[in-house]
Amino acid sequence: MEVTVYSLYSNRPDFIKLQKDCFDKHLKDDYKWIIVNNKGYLYDKTEEIEEECAKQGIECLKIEHEKEIEVSQLIARSLNLLWKDVASKAEGLVVIMDSDLFLTKDVSFIDLLGTKDIFLCPQYTDGHIWPWPGFMGFDMSSIIAKDVNFDLLKINDGYADVGSGLNTYIEKHQPWIKLVDRQEIVDQDWPVLDTNQTLYQLGFPKPYSVDFLPFAFHYKTGSNYAKHCTPEYNEAKTKALLKII
């Protein structure tokens, strides 16, 4: 089965080589990696991303937005454009993941999918299941590609986050789904992965804002723009990241 991985980048061009090195070290599938250069975000570094992709020999696909829009709507729009124009035409296994999700253990995305149609990290709103958009995979031979949509799902009087629109697909087609655990760390100070050290011992600044998958670490770049995240906070968080990947 072919594996095509799409990573959405808006900033942090320095993460491109780090993510590439993690793929090379831990991903046990033959894969094609395409970086989606998401232009239009308030803090985007489009030119730097293009330059780094050229330096690393990685295919770069630019998605431009005509005007600045709210970030969740921007990401949903980017995913819809990516899916409609590119990903839906791919064969095999299509994986969409965040630019700041780093593999930390050996994994085969093909084995992870197994005999299922989709794999995802589940989120729930009022009983509606939908995927966390940072890591999801689709068997293109078994899903109905034209029905996949990443719009924000309206539930009661509000809208759920990015990825929630896939609940419509799930309820309509009832695909077989492989659920992948995701643990969000905010206050806990547990030993990290195989290091036997806590986030604090590794140098992660508080308040923590990271996620763990069984085989990956999510840096959560977006949280770095909170008011408490000074340049010193972000520098310390990046240095700590380098100790575990």
Task: List its salient traits.
245 residues; alpha/beta; Spore Coat Polysaccharide Biosynthesis Protein SpsA, Chain A; 2 domains; seven-stranded mixed β-sheet; 7 helices; 27% helix; 27% strand; globular
Characterization of this structure:
With 245 residues, the protein is of the alpha/beta class. The chain has two domains: 3-179, Spore Coat Polysaccharide Biosynthesis Protein SpsA, Chain A, CATH 3.90.550.10; 183-241, no CATH class. The protein contains seven helices and 13 strands. α1 links the parallel β1 (3-9) and β2. The longest helix is centred in the first third of the chain and has 15 residues, at 71-85. 33% of the residues are buried.
CATH superfamily of the largest domain: Spore Coat Polysaccharide Biosynthesis Protein SpsA, Chain A
Largest sheet: 7 strands, mixed
Q: Considering DSSP H and I runs of 4 or more, what fraction of the residues is helical?
A: 25-40%
Low-confidence stretches are none
> What's the N-to-C terminus distance?
27 Å
Please give the CATH architecture of the largest domain: Alpha-Beta Complex
Write the CATH fold name of the largest domain: Spore Coat Polysaccharide Biosynthesis Protein SpsA, Chain A
Strand composition percent: 25-35%
- Mean pLDDT rating: 90
Sequence of strands across the biggest β-sheet: 3-2-1-4-7-6-10
The helix/strand order is: EHEHEHEEHEEEEHEEHEEH
Helix/strand/pairing category: alpha/beta
Number of helical segments with 4 or more residues: 7
Tell me the overall shape: globular
